[in-house]
Design a protein that fits this description.
With about 375 residues, this protein is α/β, with parallel strands linked by helices. The chain is about 30% helix and about 25% strand. The longest helix has 20 residues. Pfam families: Peptidase_M14.
Length: about 375
C-alpha cells in the first residue's frame, strides 16, 4: 500500500473521541462496548485499585501478535493509535484482509489503568511495571505474564511514549518515533531472535522515512532482565519496543499518533505477508541511536544576575481538572550551545526574569518570563487537530 493510501486510511479511521494526552479506562470503555460485536473483548484482571484491565482479540491467523499500551500510565499516544488501527481493521475489510487472515492480535490497550487515571508512569503501588518482569510483584505485571504464557505469541509489541528530549542521533533532528529490538543477554548479542525483531523495525523505518525523514531513532540496547521487553526477548519471542515521541509543536501527540499508526500498520502487514526470518535485519543497524539533544525552550544570550548565559526549560506535564497542562520549569542554566530548543528565544543580552519579577533559578516554574520588562509566554498549545 502506498504511503498516501495509509495516510488517507488514517484520516478516515482516526478515533476522534480520543484526543490529547489524558487517556483512561473512562475514555476507552465506550469504544470497547461498540467494538464488542466485531471482536472478542474481555476483562482479564484488575489493577491495584481494582480497575478492570481489558483485552481485545481479533483475527484468525496462525501468526500471534501480542501488544500492550500504557504500561506507563502517562504514555497514551500508542493507545490512541491502537483504536485508530482497530477502526481500520473493522471498517476497511479489503486492506485488512491479509492481517486478519494470517494474524491473531491480542491487545491490552491500558495495562496500568491506575497510572493512566493519575497520569503517572508508575502504578498505584509506586512500582514501574517495566522493571517488574522478574519479580512479578504487581497485579498488572501478573496479568501481562499470564497472557504471555497462555497466548504464546510469536511477536510482542511493547508500546510506550518518550520525552521531548530525544534526538535521532547527536543531531538537531527530533526522534519522533523510536524503536528497539531489546537485548536478550548481557553481551547484547545479535541473536537470531533479535534479528527477526530488527527486520520488522527496518520495515517500519523504511515506511516512516517517507514522512519523517531522519526523525527515527533506536534506543541503547543495554540489557536489563527486569524489563519486560528484555525478558520476553530472552525467552525467544521477537519483541519490539515502540516509543512515541515529539513532533514540532505537537505536545498533544496528535501528529505522532499517525506515525505510530503507520508503524503498526506497516509491521502487521509485513508480518502477515512475509516469512520473517531475520535475514533482512541489517538496515536496522543504520538507524541512529537516540541522543538527548533537546530542551523544550532555550532562551539564549540572557542576562541573569549580570551574567550572559542560556536558560533551558523542560515542560512539566501536570494533570489539572482532567486535562494535561504543560508548566515550563528551568532545567539548565549555562552554555547550551550543544543543545537545541523546540522553541528558541534570543534575549539579546537583555535582563531575563521570572514572570513575577523574581530571579530565574534551577527548578523555577514559569508560565512566562520577562525579557527587558516584556512578558513572553513560554508555552503555546499548537497541537494539530
Amino acid at each position: 500500500m502506498e504511503i498516501k493510501e495509509i495516510q488517507s486510511q488514517f484520516k478516515v479511521c482516526k478515533e476522534t473521541s480520543l484526543y490529547h494526552r489524558y487517556i483512561t479506562n473512562t475514555h476507552i470503555e465506550p469504544l470497547l462496548e461498540k467494538l464488542s460485536s466485531k471482536m472478542e473483548i474481555k476483562v482479564i484482571g484488575t489493577s491495584v485499585l481494582n480497575q478492570p484491565i481489558h483485552s481485545i482479540k481479533i483475527g484468525q491467523g496462525d501468526k500471534k501478535v501480542l501488544m500492550w499500551s500504557q504500561m506507563h500510565g502517562n504514555e497514551s499516544t500508542t493507545t490512541k493509535a491502537i483504536f485508530d488501527l482497530l477502526n481500520t481493521l473493522t471498517a476497511n475489510k479489503t486492506a485488512s484482509k491479509s492481517i486478519l487472515e494470517h494474524c491473531t492480535l491480542y491487545i491490552i490497550p491500558i495495562l496500568n489503568p491506575d497510572g493512566a487515571k493519575a497520569y503517572t508512569r508508575i502504578n498505584a503501588n509506586k512500582v514501574d511495571l517495566n522493571r517488574d518482569a522478574q519479580a512479578l510483584s504487581q497485579p498488572e505485571s501478573k496479568v501481562l505474564r499470564a497472557v504471555f504464557n497462555e497466548f504464546k505469541p510469536h511477536f510482542c509489541l511493547n508500546l510506550h511514549g518518550q520525552r521531548t528530549i530525544f534526538s535521532a542521533g547527536e543531531t538537531n533532528n527530533i526522534a519522533t518515533v523510536s524503536f528497539l529490538s531489546p537485548a536478550q543477554d548481557k553481551a547484547c548479542t545479535i541473536t537470531a531472535n533479535r534479528k527477526v525483531a530488527m527486520e520488522v523495525i527496518a520495515e517500519m523505518n523504511s515506511t516512516l522515512q517517507y514522512v519523517i525523514p531522519n526523525q527515527v531513532g533506536v534506543y541503547d540496547d543495554a540489557f536489563n532482565i527486569n524489563c519486560v521487553g528484555d525478558t520476553f526477548q530472552s525467552e525467544n519471542v521477537p519483541t519490539i519496543l515502540f516509543e512515541a515521541g515529539h513532533f514540532k509543536d505537537d505536545y498533544g501527540r496528535e501528529v505522532t499518533r499517525e506515525y505510530i499508526y503507520m508503524s503498526l500498520w506497516s509491521a502487521l502487514k509485513y508480518i502477515a505477508n512475509n516469512d520473517v526470518s531475520g535475514a533482512k535485519y541489517e538496515p536496522y543497524l543504520n538507524i541512529p541511536e537516540n541522543g538527548k539533544c533537546f530542551l523544550d525552550v532555550i532562551i539564549r544570550n540572557a542576562s541573569i544576575k549580570g551574567k550572559i548565559t542560556d536558560v533551558g526549560f523542560l515542560f512539566k506535564e501536570t494533570l489539572i481538572n482532567n486535562k494535561i497542562e504543560f508548566i515550563p520549569k528551568v532545567e539548565r542554566l549555562g552554555n547550551l550551545n550543544n543543545l537545541f530548543g523546540h522553541k528558541e528565544i534570543d534575549a539579546k543580552k537583555e535582563s531575563v526574569l521570572c514572570g513575577d519579577g523574581l530571579e530565574l533559578e534551577i527548578g523555577s516554574e514559569n508560565v512566562c518570563v520577562s525579557i527587558n520588562n516584556a512578558k513572553i509566554a513560554l508555552f503555546q498549545n499548537k497541537s494539530h487537530e
